[in-house]
Amino acid sequence: MAGPLASFALVVGLLTLTPGLDTALILRTAVLGRRRQAWGVVLGIQTGTLVWGTASAAGVSVLLTASRLGYEALRWAGVCYLLWTGARMLRSRHRQPDAEHPEEDGPGGGWWAGWRRGTLTNLLNPKVGVFYVAVLPPFIPAGAPHLAAGVLLTSVHVAEGLLWSAVLIAFARTLRTRLRRPSVRRLLDRATGVAVLGFGAKLALGD
Fold first, then answer.
1. Residue 19 carries which DSSP code?
2. Cα dihedral sign, 190-12-131-37
3. In a domain, 129, yes or no
4. One digit per residue, pLDDT tens: the chain, 207 residues?
5. What is the model's pTM?
6. Is 108 inside any structural domain?
7. Radius of gyration of the chain (CA)
């Protein structure tokens, strides 16, 4: 498995470094000062990754891609969730942070809220499942236990995602003191909300 693991790590490493919806959600949450919630988002995203990878190794994702109705149902559920999330960000309002609790200012903070958002965002994106169906099987050596090898490869993706997310959160923390004004935070929410709406529109158009 050493060779396939190294090759897969390179492929998903490049994918991890590519900015996307996950990056936008992590940065936005971390810059707002909600470190626990940001880590909740990270762990939720990686939970979704692990579920998709395991499902692909078990053959469940193959059934999803084979079923047009199932794929479309999941795709439109994802579209609705992204549009709802983006709209909420556009409407959000921020108060002046509490000096005694700078990491959890405003409503909606907490690890569980972040985990739920990250998990739903990942699981409701059928393109993640399609990616694993297309990419994972070629890296599983002939004769290797399919499910165990698939979970092992997916764990590499999860580990890389956690490391890169730690870098993103640390970077966002350095900017937090400059972005504590409510007006700046509203601007950040607007920018992230527009990005999330864009991802939802892209998913709706099937691009």
1. -
2. negative
3. yes
4. 677 888 888 888 888 888 788 888 888 888 877 788 999 999 999 999 999 888 888 876 666 666 667 667 767 776 787 787 778 777 765 544 444 344 444 445 588 989 998 999 888 887 787 788 777 877 878 777 888 888 999 999 999 999 999 999 988 877 766 666 666 667 766 777 777 777 777 767 765
5. 0.74
6. no
7. 18
Residue 34 inside a domain? The answer is yes
The answer to whether residue 100 is domain-embedded is no
Tokens for 37, please give them.
């919630």
A 10 A CB-CB count for 199 gives: 20
Structural domain including 54 reads 2-12+21-70+121-188
Count how many domains the chain has.
1
Number of H helices, E strands in the chain: 9, 0
CA distance 87 to 180: 22
Longest pairwise C-alpha distance within the chain: 59
